[in-house]
Amino acid sequence: LNIIDKYKKELGYNVIRALREKLLDAGDVNSAVELSLYIRDVDFIRQCFDKIKFNQPEYVIKFAELLIDELCAGEAILVLNQIKDDKTVDHAGLRDKWAEVFALALIEEGEVQQAKTICLDGFKNRCDVVFYKIYNRVEKVNDSLGLFSGIAKSKGFPFVVLFLSAIDNYGKLDSEIMNASKNEIKDMMVLLRGSFIRSLSSELYRHGYACSATLLRRVLVEDSISRSQSKYYTYAASDMKKSIDYSKNIVWTEKVPSTEEYFKSLFVEHKRKYALWEMMLDKIDGLAIEKDSVSYSA
Questions:
Q1: Is 63 part of a structural domain of the chain?
Q2: Which one Pfam family would you cite for this protein (predicted)?
Q3: 20 to 30 A from 143, CA-CA: which of 9, 197, 230, 287?
Q4: What pLDDT is stored for residue 150 in this prediction?
Q5: Which domain covers residue 229, as residue numbers?
Q6: Which candidate, 60, 47, 57, places its Cα nearest to that of 21?
Q7: Domain presence at residue 125
Q8: pLDDT per position as a tens digit, 97-116
Q9: Residue 31 lies in a domain
Q10: What's the pTM?
Q11: Structural domains in the chain (count)
């Protein structure tokens, strides 16, 4: 289809239709349907669906999307119901997409409550933010953010972090991070990549949440040190420097102690990791290390 897309102006729709007929004559129904989806030929796909009963989930779902676009949402629901219990939908990793399109079709048909149920069930699967966005289109009264955040958190702390970052709700995300337990933070570091946490920290800081941004950078410092390989100490020093930058105007708390206190706690635990402290000294102005102590002044 990439080739056809490139040359569609030269080929013209008549040539594409002729190619489609040859594919159909040769028994290649899937390719014929794929071409029909490309040129949005609803009538042809409808005939194939009714007579030949093509059932490849990807094409059935795309057909339903096309029907919704053509204001035939009721028919889209019937089409989607044909593969509702088909295990090939799950095997192809398309269950969330099926539920998404089904919910949209239901909304178009005025079946709002059923659509909301589909969205909630779909979100419980993998916390795909698309279900929250669809739900939010029709829920005008109740707190859908609290509802969906609760569902995500019930699956584990990393899921609520992913969800809130996906919808750019940094106020709620800041609250979740600042109130997270040590085990929840640990789970987050196991499941989420360091690069993602760094980006999250930067976004929190950019949106005015310096405490949680600082906390995440310190978590990254500890994660790099815990790997016990000197090649990660560069990351630890870099994240420590960034945490200092982020914390310049915050009020210290038990959760986020002063930079000097934090350095002291690191030193007590890791003072024999000489390569680490060499990296820290090289990167951070105001840091001083003696045989059995560390100090810092901004």
A1: no
A2: DUF6880
A3: 197
A4: 96
A5: 193-297
A6: 47
A7: no
A8: 999 999 999 999 999 999 99
A9: no
A10: 0.87
A11: 1
